[in-house]
Amino acid sequence: GAGGRGAGYVMNLKDLATAKRALRSTSFVIVLTIALFLSSAASADSADASPRMGRWFPTECPETILGPGATPSDAILIDEHKDVLVSAKFWGASADQQKEIRSYFDEDEIPPLDLNCRFVKIAGYFRHRPYHHYRGVLTSSARDFYLGDIPGNFIREGVYFVESWADDATESVHLNGSDVTLIARHYDLCRAAREAERQTGEFLFTMSGPCHYGDFTGLMLSDVRVIESKNPFQRVRGEANRKIIGDLRQLPSNWPDYKYVRRAAQDWLDAVRAGAESYYELQYAPGRFSFSEQTRIELLKRALDDRDDWIWFLAKSPESPVRSQNPPLESRPFAIFENVTHKRGRNRDAINAVVACFCSKDTCDDDWPIFDADSEYFFESYVCLSLTRNRDRPEVWKW
Questions:
Q1: What is the model's pTM?
Q2: What is the mean pLDDT of residues 70-82?
Q3: Angle of CA points 357, 362, 364, to nearest 5°
Q4: DSSP string, 294-326
């Protein structure tokens, strides 16, 4: 269920005494093991002696956890997002590493309780950013979402993945850009790999998923209950900001490929209106992408099963601008953008990828997306799609 404010009690993290560590996370990581074999006795053709070995780390939280945070009703209040990060760094470290960490922090800055696998109450800014099977990300504020080398980069320290909702009826799209208060089970996805690395003495290079980008980019919130949401659809707006901070440049209507992109965008609209099932059957049709057949089938199944999905929302929800016929979306303002940060190398003057947007209001003159990160899920203002040019047929654009 969604939980409630009056259920149980909430303790502040700083007030807690040291509790028993919870050592296992609720998910898995995929790692590529790079082993250093110093013994000449190792066989070159032995599976165990391979310098590259794929490994899975399936782990789950203990069935019974005692003390604060054992259940949603006694979730641990997180005052600052950095407390979760410091807890993960300290309690997920070896004894020697913990000594080093203590030298950098005052004693009262190190959370006294290992938060791994415990329920926490945490507030922040939610963005619906599907990545693998995750629902979105939580940053400390809307401002924090735009920090970093790439505005909207959600794979970095201090960003928490919202993995799953406790209530299947929760709609990620409606929470997009909102200030939220959540109660959720926290766990460190990358921790199992670090623990295995210490036990085996092997260097683990993580592949796929957030842990590929650093040890503490896999801080997760699962079994999430939304206690409060307010101020939806927050983002950077205004054409005056585009020249200063934006990464999307609007292309003129006389751009040579304008009519081809517009035609492809209309084809996309028609596909969505035909229904999510037929849309994904077309999206993942054999031969459309260079996937293996097994991967294609898995991606198709995941898309068809995920009812908290953007295309499902656009195709089914009464609130979807795509379904509106008063007036239809294609008769409203339309704009095409290119991401200027993607232009590199010899072909930096060529435009081979664009974002096409239909305004869902009477006008979007001062409301079009400024950042690529804002081009999706803001249905109250616009509906956008990404398109790439077909290398063999330059006039064809693929969604």
A1: 0.82
A2: 93
A3: 45
A4: HHHHHHHHHHHH-SSSHHHHHHH-TT-TTT-BT
